[in-house]
TrEMBL record:
The chain crosses the membrane at residues 260-287, 308-341, 361-378, 404-422, 428-447, 765-790, 802-827. It is a multi-pass membrane protein. Coiled coil: none annotated. This is FtsX-like permease family protein. Keywords: Cell membrane, Membrane, Transmembrane, Transmembrane helix. One of its GO terms (cellular component) is plasma membrane. It comes from Antarcticimicrobium luteum. Its main location: membrane. The keyword Cell membrane applies.
Amino acid sequence: MSLRLAARFARRELRGGLRGFGIFLACLTLGVAAIAAVGSVRAAIEAGLTREGAALLGGDAELDFTYRFASEAERAWMEQSALRVSEIVDFRSMAVVERGAQTDRALTQVKAVDDAYPLIGAVALSPGIPLEAALAGQDGLPGAVMERVLIDRLGLAPGDRFNLGTQAFVLMAALEREPDSAAAGFSLGPRTLVATPALAGSGLLAPGTIYTSKYRLDLPEGADLPALEAAARAQLETSGLRWRDARNGAPGVARFVERLGAFLVLVGLSGLAVGGVGVSAAVRAYLAGKTQVIATLRTLGADRATIFQTYFLQIGALALLGIALGLALGGGLPVLMGPLIGAQLPVPAIFTLYPRPLGEAALYGVLTALVFTLWPLARTEDVRAATLFREALSGARLLPAPRYLAVIAAALALLIGLAAWFSGTLRLTLWTAGGIAGALALLALAAQLMRYLARRAGPAARGRPALRWALAAIGARQEGAASVVLSLGLGLSVLSAVGQIDGNLRNAISGNLPDVAPSYFFVDIQKDQMPGFLDRLEGDPAVSRIESAPMLRGVITRINGQPAREVAGEHWVLRGDRGVTYAQSPGDRTRITAGTWWPEAYSGPPQISFAAEEAAEMGLKLGDTMTVNVLGRDITATITSFREVDFSTAGMGFILTLNPAALAAAPHTFIATVYAAPQAEAAILRDLAELFPNITAIRVRDAIDRVSEVLAGIAAATSWGAGISLVTGFLVLIGAAAAGVGARTYEAAVLKTLGAARRRILLSFALRSALMGAAAGSVALGAGIAGAWAVSRGVLDTDFVVIWPAAIAIVLGGVLATLLAGLLFAWRPLAARPAQVLRGRE
């Protein structure tokens, strides 16, 4: 009976409109919209990748081989299974342009193709000539096309000549669009496209050099991809092949989108938590304004359950409205802005309404609204009817009844569980939840401490009326101060943490490396070229260190006789091929952490020294066996030692090192790192390129800059997500300022009656806002730094230093935000006439 009666009361309350719930609806709408929008964009990209899988891949299926071309038997199996087969060779090289005494060089990612390329889609060139004509060349030289950024960097124009290795090419056109570019993954240089036969005399595809051959298959209509993959693995099990097909044409892109989307959803949940603070404050303010209504209902016989159910249903209906508005905004904006967003994306996206991300956002919104509204709602039933006319809500006990606490705890646990499930990142979800909870706790303590200090500092401000009035107001106005510090502080905490994480990621890649990183990586050095290579460098006083090692690529296929992924899951070491080397002794810079190195001149069964940290992550132990496919040959070796491998120095580091006899018959090249003074780098590159045109030089600074560009895009996305949290916090701040207009109007009337000037009253309001903003910003600074340190060290495993410019900007931002909000709502109290205000108060 009470529920039906409560529903009737709630319906009548709702007839009064949405006055007082503007901030409530705005906070909930914005938080849900942010999560729905991120999920919708991610779903659009995933749908685009799925639908255009074959186009992105360049065929219905692809088989990759490292360091070699397919054998006759492998090629025969492909031609038997497919309607057409296209062969592609992918590798890095140096594009060299000679202009008299001047020589320009640039790193490029070369793709050598056959006549069947592309199987799907079309290559767009400028000028718009057919690809076949462009690669045919002119004046007896083979042709090539380049990305425009590489053309500009080398100062070329169509008809100009350049060299790849020892082979001269003529530039025929600019490469405007490559249909399978998304499947290529990360590259350190712009693309150059040539015909495979043109490389026969270049010296770039000699035995042992680093290249990948890819075979794209055009399959019959309705081909069974899973069955064909199983057949390929069964037929070519020992060949070291990697299989991809149209079901996931760009797995690297899909994985990146999934992880970035999950992270942005967690950032969005932080924004929803900020909005939750505003929701809670709005409910408190609304219920405080309903004191007389509640009192009337209680005196007429309404029991506690009826009162609670009345306002639970009313606020629940408004919460559902806010969630619906958020879903409409978050789901509709990506659709409306689809063409604009799609133009900025490097992959296809299909923008429409996707039920799953909208359902996830709705669940987040419902649970957040429940967690943040149940607490203030539960306090209403503990207020006695006799005291409802005398600030009943402020006098109610702090904690609600245990049953409400249990429901809040269950809803919070469900919210965290759903976030972990939907994002697929339990660890990061727990870190995020812990960070939000810790920040809220710190901010709540800071609000109470601020009130306490304001009351204690009041007497010390004698002689400074504006400051004393500001301190008195902060010390007395509990709800306003707490709302400002909690909402703005949490939004600033999220923004501070994201800024610190981004800055430390950049430092990890670029800021800390120049002091220890090599100048160049040189790859594809033939064994007979090593003496001449070392002769040029060892006598150069500008060269401080040279490291070299044999270089092969291998695919880990089995661990202890079982498929590797069944043992170690999707660990990154098992994705694709890895660098493999051999060494007679561990070297001066190698630290063995467990086991022993093989004896000198050892020629027994193959042995492996594996990277210690990666071994621990994969669950490996001494004595385990590992099968590595190198150039189509399986080598099964026993792990006899673990060693420390530090990739952060950008120096040479191999996951796998074998004894020399294990790889004695494998053709290979060498890799070298050269540490030199910056002013000598150009001369070193010029001399080595002239001596050995086939060698590829990778400048470490260029690689760092390329990675930094990718990070800049990630940082921009996360900053937008954190910005939503800050905007929500600012909305709550505006709500708190608007809610206090009446109190400030009365305060200004009293002060003006006592002779205070408007300027001094305005200064008091400004000081009050600035002090609360400084408190929120200071706590947010500490919480953001702590959260960023935890994520950097515990999740990203990078060093951490405080980025002080960003940190100081957070505190200043808090002061400025509260000051602007305070001044925005100060004009009305200052303009009110004291007599009118005081008579109305009576």
